[in-house]
Amino acid sequence: MNAHSKLNPSGSSALSAEARVARYDWQKLSSELSGFGCSVMEKLLSPEECREIAGLYPQEEHFRSHIHMARHGFGKGEYRYFKYPLPDLLGGLRTALYPRLAEVANDWNTRMGIDQRYPANHAAFLKQCHDQGQTRPTPLLLQYVPGDFNCLHQDLYGDLAFPLQVAILLSEPGKDFTGGEFVLTEQRPRMQSRVEVVPLRQGDAVAFAVHNRPVQGSKGSYRVNLKHGVSRLRSGMRHTVGIIFHDAK
User: Fold this and answer.
1) What CATH architecture applies to the domain 3-243?
2) pTM above 0.85, yes or no
């Protein structure tokens, strides 16, 4: 069986994705997301699945565009945006993860006094994106070599943006690469920035806030601003897949 067929198992990917997402303690993950802006799902993908997805990188038929970060001031490194249809494994995970994260997103918006509410399933949310002219898929595959890094940023591709996203590390730290830590910064009003370094192993996923999250203060909840990035790669090669839930213009 080749990599493409494994990534596109006929009829089984949605069930497989839902089953693997359901095995996590979502009450604990939601609490960590609300408390720290990020939470790790260990071993979301197997090492074999990680290698298969990373192996798609040179196969241009899977992608709609190829971005070199240095050309845009994003850092140093490169990534490719997948085109529709997504590989079944990634599409299935995007569909299965969304409703779990939508509950968190709706709770956050309530606490922050934001009127936007997200529908219970991903297809309905994508329809909202497409109705606003945001039709281009945003899941992406990133590749770093020594010296590469990703500047602190927020993935906001249009007026309609889902406030949480997921990144899955496809390479094994210490074996495939060194350096290249995932970092998250948080800026609270009138305070110094807080930095979270998130340790990941191959196949681990981190869910994190894209833009804002609520923090409880003495006079109710207030918004803090978050950005994420990747520190400098010291050696080897690092691949990551990013699952962003809104589409782009």
Assistant:
1) Sandwich (2.60)
2) yes
